[in-house]
Amino acid sequence: MELGYTLSGLIVGLIVGVTGVGGGSLMTPLLIMLFGIPPAIAVGTDLLYAALTKAGGAWVHSRQKTVHWQLVKRMAMGSVPGSILTLALLNAISVDQAFLSGLITSTLGIALILTAMAISFRQYLTRLGRSHFGFLVKWRNRYVKPATVATGLILGVLVTISSVGAGALGMVVLFMLYPRLPAVNLVGSDIAHAVPLTLIAGLGHAYMGSVDYHLLVSLLMGSLPGIYFGSRVGKRIPDRFLRPILATILILIGIKLVA
């Protein structure tokens, strides 16, 4: 079974390396539906897995000066309190395992569907964010700071419950709120923000006993080389083919989990 976990980590790592998304979106449902891991264990383990893997990416972006730290701070002002409050709520209702499992599964399904939509319509939403016309631009310019904090709050709750959303959903909103920032800076800022969020959420799940450390090590053994090789070959594979396939897979899994 450990070999299966490592192989799954390798496959997901390759997909993340090629497409830039799909870590929690694929790993958590894979652990639940294929290996029968309890939802709480799958989410808690995946959160620490994400924190460790994204820490390396954040370090690289920081050295390349492609992290907008003020933006990261604004996001964290919402996501960190949101994650802590969500963890406190989950800990309070942890006695009802059936309810907790149902909550995580349903939230995960909704998060997957939203992530798939974000992947599918990212270019359209990005153009909308870069538009210089309409009331949306005026609203964005006036309320961009509180909107960023509110985005962090929503992501904090969603990621803590389902481990999904920090990547694709966060990037779509950032593209709309900060259209003048270079894409590489938005990517670096999103990755840097995901590190403290997933670490705090993961440690909270570890405190509640919902982290499998043997599973975590097995996944990392596959995902770290997978991400490396995926990043190397990603430029050779057309993005227009990969993203629709990934979005379709996420929608099908999300509908199954919600249903």
| Main beta sheet strand tally, sense and closure | none
Uncertain runs are none
The figure for the number of domains is 1
What Rg do the Cα atoms give? Answer: 17 Å
Order of helices and strands: HHHHHHHHHHH
Distance between the termini: 28 Å
State the secondary-structure class: mainly alpha
Question: What fraction strand?
Answer: under 5%
List how many beta strands DSSP finds: 0
- Write down the overall geometry: globular
Mean pLDDT: 80
Helix content: over 70%
- Helical stretch count? 11
The oligomeric state is single chain
Question: Explain this structure to me?
Answer:
The protein starts with a helix and ends with a helix. The chain is globular. With 259 residues, the protein is an all-alpha fold. It has helices spanning 2-19, 23-33, 39-63, 69-92, 97-120, 122-130, 135-162, 168-177, 183-207, 213-233, 239-258. The chain has one domain (2-258). The model has no long low-confidence stretch (mean pLDDT 80).
What would a concise description of this structure say?
This protein is an all-alpha fold and 259 residues long. It has helices at residues 2-19, 23-33, 39-63, 69-92, 97-120, 122-130, 135-162, 168-177, 183-207, 213-233, 239-258.
